[in-house]
Amino acid sequence: MTREERVDSLISYLKRENQSYDTLQEPYDYDGKRRLLRSLMNVRFPGGISEEYLNIQDELLSEETKEKEIVELKNIPVIGDLYACTTIKNVERISLWRGDITRLSVDAIVNAANSQLLGCFVPCHGCIDNAIHSAAGIQLRNECAQIMEKQGHEEPTGKAKITKGYNLPAKHVIHTVGPIVGVEVTEKQKEELKSCYLSCLKLAEKSGLTSIAFCCISTGEFHFPNKLAAQIAVETVDRYLGKSKLERVIFNVFKEEDEHIYRKLFL
Prior knowledge:
Elements: H1 3-17, H2 30-43, H3 51-68, E1 71-72, E2 94-98, E3 104-105, E4 108-113, H4 128-136, H5 138-151, E5 160-164, E6 172-177, H6 187-206, E7 211-214, H7 226-241, E8 248-253, H8 256-266
Parallel strand pairs: 1-3, 2-8, 4-6, 4-7, 7-8
Antiparallel strand pairs: 5-6
Helix pairs in contact: 1-2, 1-3, 6-7, 7-8
C-alpha cells in the first residue's frame, strides 16, 4: 500500500464512523488529503477503533516520523559545553534544543495540555497539544480519556499525568496543565507553573525515566510571559536536579525568541 493509499483508507474509515461526513468533499492532492486526515483525527472523540485502522495509521505515522529525522539524546549537547552557565549548577544534565518536540527520542516529552487532558480538538491547530496528539496517533487520546474517566474530574493546574508515546520517538508523554494568565501574572500562577515542572520531574523519576524534554509550558495559548516562564523553568529544574537521579533535562523551544531567552539565562 502506498502512502497516499494509506491516507485514503484512513480517511474513508473515519468518514464511515460519522454520517455527518457523508457530504465532505475530499481534496485531490496528497497534501490536502493529509491535512484532511489530520483534521478528522483531531476532531474524533475517544472510542474504540479497529486493529486494521491502527495498523495502517501506525505505518503512516512511523514513516513520517523517520522522514522528519529522529533526534537522539546523545546528539544533543549539554549547556555546560556551550555556555558560561555561571549561575547553573547542573550544567552536565541540562540541554537546550530548538525544533519540533515530536522528533525527540527521549524517555518522555512534556505536553502543555488543557484541563480536559484529551488533546486539541481544533483541526490542524498550531498548538503543541495538537502536534503531539497528531504525531502520536488516536491511541493517545483514548488513553487520556481512560485516565480522565477514572479520575472523574478535570486535571488540576500544576499536576501531571503520564501516558505511552505510541508513534512518537519518545517512549512517554507527560501531560501537565499550566496556568492561564490574564492581564498580569499573579504569585499563585508563578507557583502553579513551578508546580507543573516539579510534578513532571517527580512523575518521570517515579516512573523510572532518566530523560525528559520540556516544552515552554503556558507561554503559548495560556499567555504566560516567555521570559518569566523560562526563569521559573530553569530555576525549578536546576534546584530539583540537585537531589534527583534524572540524567538529562532538555528545554525544548520552537521559536527563535525563546531560544534567545534561554541562552541569556545560561550565560
